[in-house]
Amino acid sequence: MLRVRCLRGGSRGAEAVHYIGSRVRASRLGAGAACSPLRSPASPSQNCRTKTLLTRLESPASSLAGSRELGCVSRKGCMRWGPTQWARLLSESVVWRWRSALEVPSSPAGPCFAPTEFRAQREVVWLGRNLTGWVQRTFQSTQAAAASSQNSCAADDKATDPLPKDCPVSSYNEWDPLEEVIVGRAENACVPPFTVEVKANTYEKYWPFYQKHGGHYFPKDHLKKAVAEIEEMCNILKMEGVTVRRPDPIDWSLKYKTPDFESTGLYGAMPRDILIVVGNEIIEAPMAWRSRFFEYRAYRSIIKDYFHRGAKWTTAPKPTMGDELYDQDYPIHSVEDRHKLAAQGKFVTTEFEPCFDAADFIRAGRDIFAQRSQVTNYLGIEWMRRHLAPDYRVHIISFKDPNPMHIDATFNIIGPGLVLSNPDRPCHQIDLFKKAGWTIVTPPIPVIPDDHPLWMSSKWLSMNVLMLDEKRVMVDANEVPIQKMFEKLGISAIKVNIRNANSLGGGFHCWTCDIRRRGTLQSYFD
């Protein structure tokens, strides 16, 4: 709040000059002043009010009671002042600064002002006149600029709403013809520190690996093979007519610290985990692992480019990832324990604050399906539901899964009315799809060898496929059984090696984020 003199009426800029004179006279002579060369003598009551005003201004903490000259004006109220009002306020502040310098002792019998005082007063008058003019010109130009800016903003709103027809971001489902995609990077990938949330999402046989290598790079030779596989995947996508974008390379081994935790990073390998495209909007997920807190940095330059070209861009609320977000006593002893906990709706992440990975959502036009998992809580799903309503409907589905994390290796929608459903993790709400006339396809058992390292996932990455359109699918070159399954469905399999890249926790769907698919928003459940 600002304590100022209430200024009324439509006075001109010249009045500020007299106002300065009265301030000088009041500061010099007080309530008993007689005459002034600047204006007619002031009445005792006027001088009394002026002295009261100056006293109030000198002691801003004092009460305002008993003075109609003062008021409490909010910033919003000040914004409605005109140029003259601001000139008065500024002029008064200038005179107040000069008050002590201009004070000259006066004789009760002598003239009101000595010649020296009069020259000083004339200088203040000159200063007030120029200050008043400057303030008026400044505010007039500012008001004109504001009006122009408002008109410009209105024009811009009309120009950008709706989004441009050539918006670079547009995807409503998992199967429309793919035109542009982000493919992740394996370079500099690091083993995450072995924290409670990592322990809850990994298999016991790999815990010694995390305890030994947490915070350091994944094995160099393995990373080299994974990088080569992903480069080949990018080349094949380009040959299929798809534009490929890549995240920025980052050194994920660098340690960072927030007020709530410290960690090293993970990787920029799985854009599906952190990004989801819904229509013309890119949504950045907040994530749930501390090692993934800053993962968005790898994609920021790409997303900014899409934003500049017309896409919508939303970042979900970032969790603090403090200890309250995790059940520090989450009991993990066996697969049976995990089944029991999941059936009871207990996970390592609590409901302390919203968190989710984008890979726990899968799209089918107006309907988006999500699961409560070790990395996605109900608050995170609710945030997505509210954010996307009313154009999209977010449904929660669940599975018989001892370690739910990311939906696309459990339930992968590959076409209109066509879904792959993991036989080891049956969906509890599968009747919803059957009643809607959907075809439920059970993929064959994966053939990946038991001795192949899968530090962050299961063998069911075989069904984590990427649809290029309804009739083309990118699939593991070594997974012959699932290739035959797609052939029976009339879908052509594009075979690509990805085994070493699988070890980092993702298949083709995880390693990519479809940015643009040629299609429109439709409902497949009405």
UniProtKB/TrEMBL annotation:
N-terminal signal peptide: none
Catalyses which reaction(s): 4-aminobutanoate + L-arginine = 4-guanidinobutanoate + L-ornithine; taurine + L-arginine = taurocyamine + L-ornithine; L-arginine + glycine = guanidinoacetate + L-ornithine; beta-alanine + L-arginine = 3-guanidinopropanoate + L-ornithine
UniProt-listed GO biological process terms: creatine biosynthetic process
Record's GO cellular component terms: mitochondrial inner membrane; mitochondrial intermembrane space
Location in or out of the cell: Mitochondrion inner membrane
Main localization (coarse): mitochondrion
Annotated EC: 2.1.4.1
Active-site feature positions: D357, H406, C510 (amidino-cysteine intermediate)
InterPro entries reported for this sequence: AmidinoTrfase
UniProt entry tagged with the keyword Nucleotide-binding: no
UniProt keyword Mitochondrion, yes or no: yes
CDD domains per the UniProt record, alphabetical: amidinotransferase_AGAT-like
Pathway: Amine and polyamine biosynthesis; creatine biosynthesis; creatine from L-arginine and glycine: step 1/2
Top-level EC class as recorded in UniProt: transferase
GO MF: glycine amidinotransferase activity
Alphabetized UniProt keyword annotations: Membrane, Mitochondrion, Mitochondrion inner membrane, Transferase, Transit peptide
Protein family membership: Belongs to the amidinotransferase family.
Assembly and binders: Homodimer.
PANTHER family: GLYCINE AMIDINOTRANSFERASE, MITOCHONDRIAL
Job of this protein: Transamidinase that catalyzes the transfer of the amidino group of L-arginine onto the amino moiety of acceptor metabolites such as glycine, beta-alanine, gamma-aminobutyric acid (GABA) and taurine yielding the corresponding guanidine derivatives. Catalyzes the rate-limiting step of creatine biosynthesis, namely the transfer of the amidino group from L-arginine to glycine to generate guanidinoacetate, which is then methylated by GAMT to form creatine. Provides creatine as a source for ATP generation in tissues with high energy demands, in particular skeletal muscle, heart and brain.
Protein name per the record: Glycine amidinotransferase
The organism of origin for this protein: Galemys pyrenaicus
